[in-house]
Structure formats: structure tokens, C-alpha cells
Amino acid sequence: MSTRLEKMSKRLGKSGQRETVISLRQAEKKEWIKRIRFNNKKLADEVLIVEKKWAKLAYELDDRFRDKKRDLITYPIVRNLLEREADRWSRTYRNKRLTREDFLSKFYETAWLTIEKYSWIHSTYLYIQIRTAIKSCAKDMLRAIDCNSRYAFHSSLSLAEGFEDFYPDASGDLEDVVMERIFQENLSTQDKGVWRALCEGQSQRETAKELGKHRKTVSNSVARIKNKYNEFYKGMYGA
């Protein structure tokens, strides 16, 4: 028996138990797909097509199964999902300096791991698991950038309009601390959006258009950010 079969056997238990659990899981999935089809037939069709492809490959439960999964990771529906989501996330968060290729590379890795772990016993269809996994992956990538103080400081250096007069003549380490605190802790969601857009070199007019805000709203956000910057500068220097 192959290593994969041994692991699967231990995980699923005795034959009778295994058949019962798998039958229950399949029944749960069928009920779920009925509900989804009522509201989103296209998604339901994609789910079942990918599941059918996986099932066809899964009959080869031996050491070659790992290589066969390459057929699934490049399957048109799966590939289109990964590319479509990479396009969407890179467009939405282009001010994070994450490219489409950054997202796509991580999405392929995540999808591969999801396929590796998938089995008959799962109660959720493979296609849905891949969708959920890459969404979590994208959020983790964005969270990692927000937690990276070096990146926050680097972004602040590219401010193009209205902020040059507020850079203190101080050491990079102190400026790093100020920037990090402003960017991560002391700005509202709206002000963060304005900050990030300006970090990309956009004008206030362009920022307003991108965020769907009135130009006056963006101007007010800029004023608030400047005031907070000055407050932190005074607090850090005691001036």
C-alpha cells in the first residue's frame, strides 16, 4: 500500500465507518449545491465540474496521484478562478504595491495545498474550498504589508503633494516610528485610504475619484492627516 493510502486509511478509520462518513459528507454537499443552484447556477455548475474532474483523478489513489493533480491546478475553471481573483485583488489594492503576479503566485501555491489536502470526507466542495482559501491568502498578504513598518516608512517617502513641509529634519529611525504610528494606529479608515492614494503620487482630484469621494472630503482628510502628523512630531520632539 502506498504512503498516501496508508495515511488515508488511518484518517478515515475502518471500512464501514469510512463509507458511512463519506456518504454523509456527500449527502451534505448535494443539499448544499441544491441551495446554491437556486441563487447562482453558474457557480453551482463550476463547483460540480471541478468536483467531477477531481473525482476522476482521485480513483488513482497511489503515488502517481500527486503528479496527476497538476492536471487539476491547470484545469481551465480553476486557472480562470485564480487569474480572475488575482486581477481583482491587484486592482482593488494597487496602492499596496502588490502586483497581479504577486497575488497569482500565492494563489497557485494556496490552491495546490488545498487540492493536496482534499478528500472524499470533506463536507465542502473543492472549488469552494479553493475560493475560500485564496480569499484568506489575499487578506494575509495585505495584513503582512500593514504590519511591516519598513514598508510603511518606505511608502511615506513617496508623498507627492502637500506633505513635504511637514517632514521633520530628524533621523530616519525617529521618522520611522512617527510614520508607523500615524499610518497604522491613528488614522480613520477614510484617512488611510487618502494617505495610501497620496503615497502613490496621486493628486487630490485623482484620489477623490478613486475613492468615490467629493474633492472637499479628500481635502479635509489631508488637513486631518497634517494635523495628526504635527501632533506626533511635537510629541516625539517635545516641541
UniProtKB/TrEMBL annotation:
Gene3D superfamilies, A to Z: Winged helix-like DNA-binding domain superfamily/Winged helix DNA-binding domain
Stored SUPFAM superfamilies: C-terminal effector domain of the bipartite response regulators (SSF46894)
Family matches, as InterPro entries: Sig_transdc_resp-reg_C-effctor (IPR016032), WH-like_DNA-bd_sf (IPR036388)
Lineage top rank: taxon: Bacteria
TM regions (residue ranges): none
Keyword Transcription annotated: yes
Keywords: Transcription, Transcription regulation
Gene Ontology terms describing biological process: regulation of DNA-templated transcription
The keyword Transcription regulation is assigned to this record: yes
Name of the protein in its database record: RNA polymerase factor sigma-70
Annotated organism of origin: Paenibacillus polymyxa
